[in-house]
Amino acid sequence: MPKIVDHEKRKKQIAEATWKVILEQGMEGATVRNIAKEAGLSLGALRYYFSTQDELFVYAMKLVKENATERINKIAASESPPFEKVMAILLEIVPIDAQTMAEMEVWFAYVFYTRHKEDVFAAKKDEIFKGMKKLLLYLQERQILRSSLDIEIETERLYALIDGLALHALLEPQRMDKERIVKVIQYHMKKICIDGALVEGE
């Protein structure tokens, strides 16, 4: 009886092998041959699922995004107080543990690799920016954000802060550790929120 192959599971296995190769060898080492070897597949088997290297990269990065989105959606659907909820979402975007650190390192490697290849650059460059604006509007609707703030400018500031922290966490993990990241984000968010509206203990 022929073995039934779960094709979606196999594609995710290949994507995870791609992440591992990128982490260990960089984008230069992420050849189809190296990825197939890491996944324990022949070149022919890998090409059955992904006909080109770019197609594989796009899928692998899409999976990174989906993993992060799933975690964020769970937080968004929780019953946590608004300020606490926004803090938790922001901390899913910045790498503060082994999993998010690996995802962010792979993501940045892919972004730099594809920055001159618009035809394969599937990552929406403004998605995080839009996400920052949605979080601020959410706080504004809950009357937690200071009323005098310019949402457009504050979106730019929050976007720059989160993006910068993510990059510094990758480049200087000893200095920019989880504790420091949390303190910096909390400090910024407290500055733009009304004191009395914050959850107790924040």
TrEMBL record:
The keyword Transcription applies. Gene3D superfamilies: Tetracycline Repressor, domain 2. SUPFAM superfamilies: Homeodomain-like (SSF46689), Tetracyclin repressor-like, C-terminal domain (SSF48498). Signal peptide: none annotated. Residues 8-68 form the HTH tetR-type domain. Pfam families: TetR_C_6, TetR_N. Residues 31-50 bind DNA. Keywords: DNA-binding, Repressor, Transcription, Transcription regulation. The keyword Transferase does not apply. InterPro entries: BetI_C, DNA-bd_HTH_TetR-type_CS, Homeodomain-like_sf, HTH-type_Tx_Regulator, HTH_TetR, Tet_transcr_reg_TetR-rel_C_sf. This is HTH-type transcriptional regulator PksA.
